[in-house]
């Protein structure tokens, strides 16, 4: 009986490991897709802020470039409102 219980426990653990592997693969796939979406979003933001800044060369836009450009536009808008 102990042997049967051990076999059942091993079988259950094997199933759990397989499920965890499937979940890990799904998470990795989701993570890759999220990274691709982030890159696309950053490029679109840069193009909206300044088409020439994003360029048409297909280069990846860094997060720092996006942040700097958004800050620049925000500062320009604030200065514009202060003048009014």
> Could you give the distance between the termini?
86 Å
Summed up, the helix count is 3
What is the arithmetic mean of pLDDT? Answer: 86
N-to-C SSE string, H for helix and E for strand: HHH
- The total of beta strands comes to 0
Poorly predicted ranges (pLDDT <50, ≥5 residues)? none
User: Rounded to an integer, what's the Rg over CA atoms?
Assistant: 25 Å
Q: How much of the sequence is in beta strands?
A: under 5%
Number of domains: 1
Major sheet attributes: none
DSSP helix fraction: over 70%
Structure description:
The mean pLDDT is 86. This protein has helices at 2-49, 51-54, 63-83. The protein has one domain (2-83). It is rod-shaped and about 85 Å long. It has three helices and no strands. The protein is mostly helical and 84 residues long. The longest helix has 48 residues, at 2-49.
């Amino acid at each position: 009986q102990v042997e049967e219980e051990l076999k059942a426990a091993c079988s259950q653990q094997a199933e759990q490991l397989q499920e965890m592997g499937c979940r890990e693969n799904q998470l990795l796939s989701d993570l890759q897709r999220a990274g691709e979406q982030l890159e696309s979003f950053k490029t679109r933001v840069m193009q909206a802020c300044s088409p020439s800044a994003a360029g048409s060369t297909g280069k990846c836009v860094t997060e720092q470039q996006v942040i700097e450009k958004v800050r620049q536009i925000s500062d320009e808008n604030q200065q514009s409102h202060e003048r009014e």
